[in-house]
Structures are given as C-alpha cells and as structure tokens.
Amino acid sequence: MDNFQDEPENMPHARIGVARFFLRILALFAFFYLTLFIPSSMIETARYYLGPNRVYVYGDYSSSIYANTPQYAAYGMNKLDDYPDQIFILGASTPGHVFAPWRIAEALPGYKVHNLCVQGSNITQITEVRDILESRVAISKLHSAVFVLNLHFVSFLDNERNSGGTLTQIDQEELRHHLYRLRDGRVTPLFTGPAMETALFLVRPFIWLYKLKTDTRNKIQTLRERIGSLSQPETQKNHSGNSNFYRSYRLMQFDGRLFTDDQFNILQTLVDRLLAEGATIVLVDLPVASYYRNDFPIYDEYRRRIKPIAANPALHYLDMTTAAPDNQFLDDAHAKPEFYEAWANMLIRHLKTIVKPPLKQEVVRP
Asked: Would the CA dihedral through 126, 128, 131, 137 be positive or negative?
C-alpha cells in the first residue's frame, strides 16, 4: 500500500527524466543539422554570388551541393533571370558536355547562354526543364529567347523504357526530399511562393548529405570497376568502334520495339508553346554514328517521325546527323573531348545566321 502512495511523488521525477531525454535527442539533432547546414549554405552562397552569371548544369553540379544533374535542375537553377537576350540549350548528356555556354557566349556578344541539359533526358524531361525555367523567366517578355532543343533517336524513348517507370529522373529527385508530392500522376510542390523558398533553404543539409553519400558510393563503384578490369581481356575493356555491341545494346534498350507516339506528341506541344511565347526554336539533330544511319530500323523510324516536325517553317532545323565521322565518338553517342569545339562550332555558325541583334553588344561575362 505504501508503494502505491509513493508513486505520485515519483511521477514528476519520471516526467523530468523523459523530458531531459527528448531534449538531449533534440540537441543532438540540432548539432547534426548545424554541422551540415553551415558548410552546405557556404557552398551554395559561394556558388550563387561568386560563381558564373549563368546556369551550366553539367559544368556546375559537381562543385555544388547537388549529387547529379537531375537534382541540380530540380533545385539549383536559381540564377536564371529576365536578361533581355538569352539562349537556352536543352537536351541530354551529349549537348550537356559539348555546347559549353561560355564558348557560345563569346561568339554571340550580347547574349547570355545557359546550358540546361540533364543526363538521360527524353522529351518529357526536356519539357520539365523548360517548365522549371518558365517558373523563373518570363519567356514572352524577353527581347530574344532562343531555345536550342537537342534531339537524338534515344531521346524519344518513353518514360517506362527510359527511366524504368512513369516518373522522370527529375521527378524522382523532387520527391526524394519530400518537398513535392505525387498527385494524379503529376509531381507538384507542397508549398508555393516564400514558403517553398524557405523549405528549399532549410532542406539544403539533407541534399548535401545525399551528395556526400552518392559521391562515396560512386568512388567505391569506380574502384571496383578498375580492379575488375584488370582481369578482363583487352578486347572487353573498350567497346569504342564496336558497332555490333552498340546496335545490340540499343535494341535491348528499346526492348525489341519501336517508338510510341507520346514523345513526338510532347515535342510538338513543346514547340507550339514556345512559338506562342515568341521564342526562336532551333531543333538540332545531333551527330549519329554511321552504324545507326545504315539499316537500323529504330533510327529509320525516328527519321521518318521527326521529319514533319522539323519541316515546320516557323522553326529552324540543324541536321548534324552525318557531320561527325565515327572516330569522333567516345561511345555510340558522346563526342570525344577533343572534338567538343568542332561540334559546338557547327551550332555557333547556325545561330549566327538566325538570332536577332541583341539590345546589348558586349560579351556577357560568366
């Protein structure tokens, strides 16, 4: 009986103990958060205020807090503005490497050039990049808005075969940190306006932590591959120039099927929207290795389908498909670094013939 009478007297002490426990947990979390918040904020502040005055997704993401190009596109394109004359380069990894914005800006004084290419982009993801861009730039109000839309037959894979589901890589990165939600098949932000900007600011430590984890995993994977390659015959180490390997790989990627209509319809919708906003459009058909251009059904079907879109007199079409010999390819799609400038010069020469004179004539410095 005495034990029951003493129990109420012990209750406050028990509650204090529980409160202290949770305060310690909270203090540890705050310490952990600040440990990540301070350096991640310093990196982002330096990138924003001291970095180049343009967006170059492939050139900038490695020195940022973002783990990959889709994540940079989702969260890091905050340097876009309403400068009157701008060129926006959209596409996947090949133009992301080749079309360096500083090189194009030097050739076209008065234009600010952004390279917004994202790895693995099909037309759906290219359209998403355009939507992110439009959330920060009033395209119709610019003096000159030039969109360079880079195409390759692989860009027209549907989402299921391109990214393994209905979501693009940008969608997946937006959902990763729980600031977006999936509603009726579409990824939408949880907040809008200043509330979303605050949330993006506060989530930086977790974005950077994910980058640190990803970088560590990639380095371990690279080390494993290097060790594994030591035991491989020399013929298995490099597939460059192996047309049968690449043709087989693409056939497997396409799962023995040709194209669906969706990506071509999305491209047509994108073109129509940009034209309605007064933008200048350049469709660039990127260089393609000869072993695809000769008797490869997937490529033949792509050329048949892209022809009516490219024939639109309201846009400009640059066909570079036959412009590069096979020895300029690093694999079956990407250029060797020593040929980046040559490929970029083909685009520069075309742009010089179609862009209108900018309001300012000086070179826009990075």
From this structure: negative
Sign, CA torsion 51/196/57/43: positive
Please write down the HEC assignment for all residues of 205-238.
Answer: HHHHHHHHHHHHHHHHHHHHHHHHHCCCCHHHHC
**What confidence tier does 128 reach under pLDDT thresholds 50, 70, 90?**
very high
Task: Work out the number of other CB atoms within 10 angstroms of the CB of residue 215.
Answer: 12
DSSP 138: -
Say if CB 281 and CB 274 are below 8 A apart: yes
Reported as type and span, the H/E element at residue 125 is: helix 123-134
CA angle, residues 51, 282, 291, in degrees to nearest 5 = 100
The tens digit of pLDDT for each residue in 263-305 reads 999 999 999 999 999 999 999 999 999 999 999 999 999 999 9
Q: Could you give the 3-state DSSP secondary structure of residue 73? A: helix
As given in the structure block, the two tokens for residue 277 are 């906003």
Look up the pTM and report it.
0.89
Between CA 78 and CA 55 the distance in angstroms is 8
* Residue 209: other Cβ atoms inside 10 A: 15
Q: Name residue 48's amino acid.
A: Y
290: helix, strand or coil: helix
> Any idea what the Cα angle at residue 107 is, between residues 349 and 68, rounded to 5°?
95
Looking at 277-357, list the stretches that DSSP marks H as alpha helix, in order from N- to C-terminal side: 290-293, 297-310, 340-354
User: Is the Cα dihedral 271, 275, 277, 278 positive or negative?
Assistant: positive
